């Protein structure tokens, strides 16, 4: 069968349909965006070295790009009739959304309900309490790392956990689930695209970008998890109420009479609550 393709289109390799010709692809937009996000993290580190968790912030911010990259891979693969890559990319996209739902459900059932220390901490940050779970559900579960990232020394990013091991378990569970059911399919789609799609298409650049950024996230996640739950999440004495003798402060009127939250910690009236940071000993 002979095809007369319109201007701007060319016959595909299978000689079955007209597809867009290679055009002026945007050169690696997601790699450039990721680089800018890393510079943002560098600014946080320079501003507040003591609290900024560099690896944690990079994972969270790069993760925010994944849903857009996967969606674009699905669309561009469909346009170029690379259906195998399209199906694999779609599976990866759906797996990411499923991981977001898994994290959100576990977070609400096991953290919000059972970790009273975390609940009392997040009470002071209503915007974090409202918007971060929405971003976790709709964009990427890796946004949950912002709870303890220390981003620019903001107290709303220095969560306090009573069950920090449980939150760490949730982090590992969803990360490994994503690696298996999301990243693996995207990696295979990348290989198919790089072997079948000519250079010059945006899809070929997307394949390179997802391949690189996913490898970066995997390596950084392994590095982060090797620190353990205590080092990452047990922020006793950091980012919450303090008094001059550097003892933690408990807010009066916020605990029940039979509440054992931080027993032995001196009380302070909520109106005079002081939030300060403890710098490491020189």
Distance between the termini: 78 Å
Helix content: 55-70%
Portion of residues in beta strands equals under 5%
Given as residue ranges, the uncertain stretches (5+ residues, pLDDT < 50) are 236-282
Average pLDDT metric: 84
User: Which series of helices and strands comes N to C?
Assistant: EEHHHHHHHHHEE
Strand order of the largest sheet: 1-2
Shape: elongated
SS elements, strand count = 4
**Number of alpha- plus pi-helical segments:** 9
Helix/strand-derived category reads: mainly alpha
Quaternary state of the chains? single chain
How many separate domains? 2
Plain-language structure description:
The chain has 282 residues and is mostly helical. The chain has 2 domains: 23-237, no CATH class; 241-282, no CATH class. The chain contains 9 helices and 4 strands. The chain has helices at 29-47, 54-63, 66-79, 83-112, 116-122, 126-138, 164-196, 202-225, 228-233; strands spanning 9-11, 18-20, 250-251, 267-268. The strands form 2 sheets. A two-stranded antiparallel sheet has the order 1-2. Strands 3-4 form a two-stranded parallel ribbon. A hairpin with a 6-residue loop joins β1 and β2 (18-20). The termini are far apart.
């Amino acid at each position: 069968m002979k095809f007369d393709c319109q201007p701007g289109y060319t016959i595909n390799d299978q000689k079955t349909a007209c597809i867009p010709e290679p055009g002026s692809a945007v050169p690696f937009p997601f790699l450039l965006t990721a680089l800018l996000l890393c510079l943002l993290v560098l600014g946080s580190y320079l501003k507040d070295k003591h609290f900024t968790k560099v690896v944690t912030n990079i994972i969270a911010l790069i993760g925010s790009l994944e849903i857009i990259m996967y969606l674009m891979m699905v669309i561009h693969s469909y346009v170029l009739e690379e259906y195998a890559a399209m199906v694999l990319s779609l599976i990866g996209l759906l797996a990411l959304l499923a991981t977001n739902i898994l994290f959100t459900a576990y977070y609400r059932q096991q953290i919000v309900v059972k970790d009273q220390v975390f609940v009392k901490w997040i009470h002071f940050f209503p915007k974090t309490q409202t918007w971060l779970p929405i971003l976790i559900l709709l964009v990427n579960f890796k946004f949950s790392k912002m709870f303890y990232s220390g981003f620019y020394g903001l107290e709303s990013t220095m969560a306090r956990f009573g069950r920090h091991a449980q939150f760490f378990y949730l982090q590992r569970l969803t990360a490994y689930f994503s690696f298996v059911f999301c990243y693996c399919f995207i990696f295979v789609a990348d290989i198919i695209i790089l072997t079948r799609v000519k250079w010059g298409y945006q899809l070929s650049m997307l394949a390179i970008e997802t391949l690189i950024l996913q490898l970066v996230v995997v390596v950084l996640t392994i590095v982060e998890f090797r620190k353990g739950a205590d080092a990452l999440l047990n922020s006793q004495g950091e980012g919450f109420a303090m008094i001059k003798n550097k003892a933690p402060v408990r807010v009066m009127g916020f605990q029940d009479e039979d509440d054992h939250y931080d027993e032995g910690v001196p009380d302070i009236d909520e109106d005079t609550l002081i939030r300060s940071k403890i710098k490491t000993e020189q």
